[in-house]
Amino acid sequence: MSIEPLSWGRGSTPNGAGLRSQAPAMPGIQQWSAPARGANLDSVRTALTSEDSLGVVITGSRGVGKSSLARAAVNDLGPDVWSLQLRSAPAGSSAPYGCLSFLLARLPQAYMGSPTAILRGITSLIRSDAAGRPCIITLDTSGGIDDMSAGVLLNVLLTGTAKIVAVAPRTSDLPDDFHWLLADRRITEVRLDNLNELQTRQVLLSLLGHRVSASLVATYHNMVGGNPLLLKALVTEQQHSGNLVLSDEVWTLRDKVVLDGAASLDDIVRSRWSRETAETREVIEMLSCARSVELSRLTAIFSADVVADMEDEGLLEIEGSDHRWVTLREKYIGDVVRTWLSIARRRELRSMLLGGAEPDPAGMSTEELLAFAAWTHECEADLSPGLAFAAAAAAVQLFDPRTALAYADMLPRSHPLWVPAQRQKAAAYLQLDLPLQSLATLEGISAAELDALGATEYAEVIAATSQVMLWIPEKTRAVPGLLVQARDRLAAAGHAAAWPDPVAVAVNRIALSDFEYQAFVGNYAAIIPALEHAADPARNPDTGFRMNAAIILMTARALTGREMEALSLMRQLGGQLTDASHVVGIRERYTRDAYLVLLLAGQWRRCIDFLGPQSTEEPNRISQQDSAHELAVGVAYAFSGRGTEALEPLISAVAQLEIHPTQSGLRCAYSATALAYAQIGNPAAARKYLAKLHRVPGTADFATECVITFCTLVAGRWLGDPDAAGALKLAAEANLADERFTVAGLYLLAATVNGSDPEFRLLEDIAAHRQGPLAEVSRLIAIGSRTKDAKTLLAGGEIAATLELEAVEARCMALAVDFARQDGDAASARTAQARLDILAATVTNLPIVPSSGSPLLTSRERQIARLAGRGASNRDIALEMGVSVRTVEGHLYQVFTKLGVTSRGDLTGLV
């Protein structure tokens, strides 16, 4: 007998934990990670709406967002679907009908006599509650499903009463009766893995509601390995601690990520910790303190079987180098466990690993030095002066200035390494954009201490002092005198000393400081002969001096019009970097200057490829390199005229630099952001960043100041500032006087959008002193604009197109349209207009609009022109677009007029 007609009101009222009347209109708070799971969500939705499907099982490790995805999928089906949530009984429980107990309580007593009656009763109850609507059962199988519940659920599925969304770590955790449904593909498996970095970004955007900096995404992604549950816990803790801050509408980190006191993450780790063996816990404790340990050393302390098992379980990661370094795969575990350990326990583990002997800093990498120093510091143990100095130097090299200051301060003044430590302190202060403190640190070295130094260390102190003085405007001009004094002292110390004599090494270091000074103030042309001599391997065996001189030479050539020679030298030096890997800072200097060389040559796309992805080797370390990377990417896009693409990295860089300012970095970021906003036609935002720029004092090296000036003045030109073009021309003349032809050419090219014949002749003369395709574009624009030759401008536009400089190409095409029409050159006019019409879709604001009165094609005109060019009749076009034939005829008349064509055949290839 059917039980549907019975009144179910006599049963228990269903509680909210087990039964939900309908899916809410908006996703709940637990569904914040769903936006990153678009493809998975589509798969689940397809399985739930397919007629032949009985449902889906979502599998994956703990915390990957299985339940969130299940809820999101059910919510997406809308209020016309009845949703029933079931949770399995606690692990170890064998009570029958455990997950259906709240439904069982609602059955009349008469239907509790047999399993068959219970099955029919629960099935009918679900149908009655659904009231004719499709029903979706969401089942969490984490605790296991008893056989009686499994049987009822199987009947519910097979009778079409409901479909299921099961959540399980693995398909093997499902009841046995469900396995054949999987095998027959009646149920679909959707496997969730941890988020990749792009998905992490999407989740953070969903969770925080504002832009997020790239360094924040990389840091959090690597700390939690892409686990959404841990990511949310980490975000919550960092917000509460005040380390995650909103700066200029961008979320970024104020400082390093420290998990001390992170309660939610602590609970997650303790839950996992409780399931591990004593041996596994001890290995985790060791690695949480040491960060990384060589495999041979780890297996000498602990059982090799334990280490192997931990690797199999995904707890450990073993790198493939000769050292076979072992680290915790999930870094957050070590960060949390480390906070649990007492000082005594940390010291015990340190003693166990070291065996009573400190490592030799000479045989350690920078990362190893910092990890060992951090462990020693956490143990409140004494760090030897040698290791403290090495750790300070490593921190400076990795752009971690605050850590460098802490370790440098550990050295007593009486120690021989105290003066070198002061150099590291000065470098750290300079990285923090505190040049006055940096100079005060070096001036704290007494005359007696300076006199007692050997030639090499003396030269390093002088070099460090001159480097700091460059960043203090009132001290910059005093640098040559300081270097002359140093040369005099070294000359007295050793006449005609040959390398590798310490005096010869010191002389080279002072010579390099002089090159750095001349480059800083922009005297490139004057030092090129000396740089070529210093960079010649046949004349100079000092690798460090030679490579650094060659890098400066590369930049000097790029700025003085020898762009192709600079690019050739850049490729040559790139192949030699490995041989010079022992030279501190050489790779960073090469990367910075090579980027500038590519930018000046107009090869902005190669700039971005050259920079590559951001480094994530130390995910919990906030580094100036993060903001510098995003700033460089944004500047490259802005130089290419792509304001929209430039804004994302630039705004992120601004947010970070406003918290952690660097030498000239914030000024550069403000100017480039203003240019990007001007390019996309947002004058209010552009003026906002120009105002910020004018409020920030500071100095910069000549090359960086060129970028700042260029971005600022070109932004002003885009905004219609009447003085911007004049300022660009004056800057071009000043650079031309000092033979910086490349810079002069770039300034004048930007200044002459509406130039005069004398200005175009000057632009042509400057181009004759330059090399490469960008120089040729400048020359052709100058000649074409002066002679009003459309074909010359078309040729310039073609070269600009190969460089992907679309704004420059649009300038060429707009002028070509006017000049071709004035000369009656219909073919050139058609070609230029068609190309300009295409560019209008990607260039937000055209630098020049044709003055002939013919506007660009509208989107509808372009669509009609394409169809007509393919041979479609007016009637066919009208039917295709749903308009009248007369409308098509009118649009075609406008197209023919604008493009200067007389037949449909002329349209082929133009639009």
Please describe the structure with a list of short key phrases separated by commas or semicolons.
disordered N terminus, mainly alpha, three-stranded mixed sheet, 45 helices, Arc Repressor Mutant, subunit A, 911 residues
- How many DSSP E strands? 11
Termini separation (Å)? Answer: 73 Å
The geometry reads as flat
**Reported CATH architecture of one domain:** 3-Layer(aba) Sandwich
How much of the residues is beta strand, in percent? 5-15%
> Largest beta sheet: what is the strand line-up?
2-3-4-1-5
How would you name the CATH homologous superfamily of one domain? Answer: P-loop containing nucleotide triphosphate hydrolases
What is the number of helices? 45
Largest sheet: 5 strands, parallel
What is the share of helical residues?
55-70%
Q: Decide which structural class fits the backbone.
A: mainly alpha
Give me the secondary-structure topology.
Elements lengths: L37 H12 L5 E5 L6 H11 L5 E6 L13 H4 L10 H16 L4 E6 L6 H12 L4 E6 L7 H8 L3 E5 L5 H12 L2 E2 L1 H11 L3 H14 L2 E4 L2 E4 L9 H11 L4 H13 L2 E2 H7 L2 H9 L3 E3 L6 E4 L2 H10 L2 H12 L11 H13 L6 H13 L3 H8 L9 H14 L3 H9 L3 H5 L3 H16 L2 H4 L2 H15 L8 H20 L2 H11 L8 H17 L3 H12 L11 H15 L3 H8 L12 H16 L3 H17 L5 H15 L3 H13 L6 H17 L5 H14 L3 H11 L5 H12 L4 H15 L2 H13 L3 H18 L2 H14 L19 H11 L4 H8 L3 H15 L12
Parallel strand pairs: 1-4, 1-5, 2-3, 3-4, 6-8
Antiparallel strand pairs: 7-8, 9-11, 10-11
Helix pairs in contact: 1-2, 4-5, 7-8, 7-9, 9-10, 11-14, 11-15, 16-17, 17-18, 17-19, 18-19, 19-20, 19-22, 20-22, 22-24, 22-25, 24-25, 25-27, 26-27, 27-28, 27-29, 28-29, 29-30, 30-31, 31-32, 31-33, 32-33, 33-34, 33-35, 35-36, 35-37, 36-37, 37-38, 38-39, 39-40, 40-41, 41-42, 43-45, 44-45
